[in-house]
Design goal:
Blueprint: H1 2-26, E1 29-34, E2 37-38, E3 42-44, E4 50-51, H2 53-65, E5 68-73, H3 76-84, E6 90-91, H4 99-102, E7 105-107, E8 112-113, E9 116-121, E10 136-140, H5 144-151, E11 156-160, H6 163-172, E12 177-181, H7 182-191, E13 199-202, E14 210-211, E15 214-216, H8 220-235, H9 238-246
Parallel strand pairs: 1-5, 1-6, 10-11, 10-12
Antiparallel strand pairs: 2-3, 3-4, 6-15, 7-15, 8-14, 9-12, 9-13
Helix pairs in contact: 2-8, 2-9
Length: 248
Amino acid sequence: MKSRKLVMVMVLVSMLVTSLATGCQKSQKIVVATDATWPPMEFVDENKQIVGFDIDLMNAIAKEAGFQVEYRNVAWDGIFAGLAAGEYDAIISSVTITDERRQQYDFSDPYINAGQIVVVRADSDITGPETLSGHTVGAQISTTGAFEVQKMAGVTLKEYDEVGLAFEDLVAGRIDAVVCDTPVAADFALQREEYRAKLKIVGDSFTEEYYGILVQKGNSELLTKINKGLAAVKAKGIDKDLQEKWLR
């Protein structure tokens, strides 16, 4: 009898430990940085809340993977250094997966293709990236858009801390074009009332660029959870629904 009681006690203890472990796992919270200046991907709404495609996607990933997210709004020029310093656990901020960045950080599986595209004034005769020679082109500093413009022969690059400043200069005639990710171009040129009659998108996306979620190099535990959640989001078509909500 004592043996049976001992076994029952051990089973109950085991169940309790398992339950506590499961509860801790479900309540795990990670801190995610984003530069909330890139609508419709990530931005601050009229209620001072960080919203956008990336935020909805990360929330969906967290729900599927069983963790919670706390967001931190971080300026782009310091966002990568903050991750390296351990100030937060991950970044979701329209970050293009590149070989150079892979050397310093670990990326999730890709979640959207958002190649570079050209935006000009409505009366411009620029027809695409192949006709930018001799012009001044704006892009946000340290983005793939800026990197692509640097490769273009005969093009003068003007860099900005925030992409919205580039569009202000474009409308004012201080630059001739802006190169940026397709979702950002769609937001400024097609969605914003103050710009959509003044700007147009020309040509097609001229790069294939995939966004990913970053974690510190070697953080395989968190990366596995994020990829698991992302796979579930894709399997359920949630990512497609979010594209319809934010990018169409």
